[in-house]
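Support request, please re-run this one:
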Amino acid sequence: MPKQVLTTSEAARLLGVSVRTAQLLIENGPLKSWKTPGGHRRVYLADVMAYMAQHPRSSESGSALALLVASPARTPLFDGLLDSVGECQVLTCADVYHAAFTVGVRAPAVVVVDTHDDRETRRAFLNRMSSHPELGATRFIEVVAARDSAAPQGQERMLVTTPDELPGALRALFTPSSSQPDPVFATDDSASFPLAANELQRLSALQRTGLLGTDPEPAFDRLTWLASRHLRMPVSLMTLLSATHQHFKSRVGLDLTETPRSWAMCNRTILQRHVYTVPDLTESPLFATNPAVAGAPYFRFYAGAPVFDPDGFALGSICVMDYRPHELDAEQSQTLLTLASIASDEVRRRVAPRMPRAAR
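Re-run finished. Output below.
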């Protein structure tokens, strides 16, 4: 059978890296390639698969998903602890069967199992998943009420922690071990906005979606229209945050197509999992001097919810803005969160899986 041929972009998507990184792998020799008569590089799928087998993806570059197995009674505890961990998206499963299915759909960077309830079943799940050959890049955390002699010790891919220690443990796992940045991206060290520890990986994930620099699309325009209409806001946006700019993939009530990233209130939104609200921007020390608040168009209210890619990286937000101070009630907040979830689903639908996986 003829060998399947990939473009550089297709190889990058399969490898889970930026196109520029794939170009470096191809041009510097680790991946064998050739040029077409038109001067375009091509590689064989078999060679890419062989490279991936020799260089397993690490969790710090390939995923920002954290899967939490916890009972409904304990879930609020973990929600409160993990809401400030901006490096990952946390998916919660109430039992090991749901968790096994979720892992099979897309391997997370880390699996967190609370053994406060049903200890034997959940510890058996941990042991089975941590030895699964297709989860070689996934780390595992057992959460215990107190360190006990029965907890697994000394396993390279498994940590044991208490609930209060969990946020720090997760941040450590999502902090890249290497200080060498992806050559495509550079961040501004003098930036006036916060960045997650895995910001370079988030930027690479954004580039892989292919959404930057594309025209408006009905699938996203419907969501911003609904946000503006149902929340009664004059401005509604779907934002994408690149290294230097805030891009508006969809917009209602605003003529601008982008702003400097330093203007983006969504910088705070992408560091948490719920709706981020600023009732009066002029009274906020974070935003009172923002050019879009202190000057035209003189925004006074902001609320946004994060939009995620399939691997849990926050790409931007669905947000609404007003020219007067405002507050959202519980139903309005849920509406905004739901619209952002639909936008995330649309992003996931168009981003092809890198590799099929199964957790058996």
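The longest strand covers residues 314-322. The domain at 199-350 is CATH 3.30.450.40 (Beta-Lactamase).
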